[in-house]
Amino acid sequence: ANYGPNPICKGCLSCSKDNGCIRCQHKLFFFLRREGMRQYGECLHSCPSGYYGLRTPDMNRCSRCRIENCDSCFSRDFCTKCKTGFYSHRGRCFRGCPAGFAALEELMECVEGCEVGQWSEWGTCSRNNKTCGFKWGLETRTRQIVKKPAKDTMPCPTIAESRRCKMAMRHCPGGKWRRPAKTKDKKKKKKNLMERAQKQHSIFLATDKTSQ
């Protein structure tokens, strides 16, 4: 029987009073809605969240997305919109973007990020552009940007880093090694203290002799 006046039968070609739509009008999608133990058919212009429209010669149907954490999909295995908190990448949904891809927050998508090469060997230990004359210096290594990101707003990883190193040659050939300024200042202060102490001691001895 056709229960056209019944709201549950809207868009149906044939309808059951208990089970709703059985067949839909042309271009509409048949969707089997489940509510607890009950289920009934509906005819919709577009499929609800978590489903996609599958067109067949027999009847268009709403088929469930089989992709985890997908909100809407283009086909069974290609998600077009992920659930809140998940990033879309090549038809799948991820909590975080895969290696080599950066998160585009405004669209919740993973796009090609900045790709860098391997680190070079550590460079020569130097300080103030000199490879001698100091005990400690810095050595640096670098890596090249192989592929720039799709958007300039996405930063690239560090392409240069330095670390403390010990000079191979503390004394420069043919030159006199100089102590750092701090060491010189300490020696000068110590010398002044010694001289002051000796002077005070001399005054004390002279005063002691006079009193005798």
UniProtKB/TrEMBL annotation:
Domain R-spondin Fu-CRD, first and last residues per copy: 9-110
Annotated Gene3D superfamilies: Hormone Receptor, Insulin-like Growth Factor Receptor 1, Chain A, domain 2, Thrombospondin type-1 (TSP1) repeat
Protein's UniProt keywords contain Ribonucleoprotein: no
Record keyword Secreted present: yes
A GO molecular-function descriptor: heparin binding
Gene Ontology cellular-component annotations: extracellular region
Location of the protein in the cell: Secreted
Spondin-like TSP1 domain: residues covered: 114-167
Main subcellular localisation: secreted
Biased composition annotated in UniProt, kind: Basic residues: 176-191
Pfam families: Furin-like_2 (PF15913), TSP1_spondin (PF19028)
Biological processes per GO annotation: Wnt signaling pathway
Keyword terms: Developmental protein, Disulfide bond, Glycoprotein, Heparin-binding, Secreted, Sensory transduction, Signal, Wnt signaling pathway
Region spans: Disordered: 173-212
The family this protein is said to belong to: Belongs to the R-spondin family.
PANTHER family, per database record: NEUROHYPOPHYSIAL HORMONES, N-TERMINAL DOMAIN CONTAINING PROTEIN, R-SPONDIN-2
Protein name: R-spondin-2
Organism, scientific name: Rhagologus leucostigma
